[in-house]
Design a protein that fits this description.
mainly alpha
């Protein structure tokens, strides 16, 4: 899982930077605007794949940040389903996603990066909760302080 976590962060960063570059090219009229939303699907598709791998992957545990991200993802899915009730609702929901999804993408890559740091700090071990109930982290928690 450590190798996938490293690859996951690298791919996400490359996709996000590529998406920003494509958006800049569209804004400067270097590329036709038909490609403007392409990065949303690339980054979002990869992140959904990553979420599924982390959910079903062997030896993974959910940290606090990942739980927050899954809660946001559930909220987005429910909002989209509820927006189907009216004709205008889906337009508002999609517009909201246009603005909200980049924040989710950056939050998820941050989550994966923090989990990668945990993997690298404890070679051969599974990641543990990134922030405990008492606010401690793996490096500052009660176990780390006893050693």
């Amino acid at each position: 899982m450590k190798a996938f976590a490293r690859l996951d962060v690298i791919i996400q960063v490359i996709l996000i930077i590529s998406g920003l570059a494509l958006g800049l090219a569209v804004m400067t009229n270097s590329i036709h605007s038909d490609y403007m939303f392409f990065p949303y699907f690339l980054v979002g598709g990869w992140q959904i794949f990553s979420v599924i791998v982390h959910l079903v992957g062997e030896g993974t545990r959910m940290g606090q940040l990942r739980k927050i991200y899954l809660g946001m993802l559930l909220f987005v899915i429910l909002a989209l389903l509820l927006s189907l009730a009216t004709k205008e609702g889906i337009i508002y929901a999609l517009f909201g996603l246009l603005i909200f999804s980049p924040f989710m993408a950056f939050f998820y890559v941050f989550t994966c990066y923090k989990e990668l740091l945990v993997y690298q700090a404890k070679p051969g071990n599974d990641p543990i909760e990134l922030v405990g109930n008492d606010g401690s982290t793996p490096a500052t928690g009660p176990i780390a302080q006893d050693n």
